[in-house]
Amino acid sequence: KLRVVAESLKGQARLDALARVAAVAPRYGEYQKKTDREIPVIRLTPAG
């Protein structure tokens, strides 16, 4: 098991991360374009 800390990204950090995800998994970017709601982007960082 790996302990992590979850952080919900906002603003430019969210947009940058979503662009990186969409570059390797284009469907995520397409899905965001099809909806008005903001899809959460969560960063997982190893804890301590």
User: What is the topology, as strand order, of the major beta sheet?
Assistant: 1-2
Specify Rg, calculated over alpha carbons.
12 Å
Number of contiguous helices: 2
Distance between the termini: 14 Å
**What is the oligomer described by this structure?**
single chain
Number of strand elements: 2
Helix content: 40-55%
The largest sheet is: 2 strands, antiparallel
> SSE order, as H and E?
EHHE
Mean pLDDT: 93
Number of domains: 1
Overall shape: it is elongated
| Backbone structural class | alpha+beta
- Low-confidence blocks of residues: none
Percent range for β-strand residues: 15-25%
Care to describe what's here?
By secondary structure, this protein is α+β, with helices and mostly antiparallel strands. It has one domain (4-46). The protein is 48% helix and 21% strand. The chain contains two helices and two strands, in the order βααβ. It has helices at 11-24, 26-34, and strands at residues 4-8, 42-46. It has a two-stranded antiparallel sheet with strand order 1-2. The longest helix has 14 residues, at 11-24. The chain is elongated and about 35 Å long. The two termini are 14 Å apart.
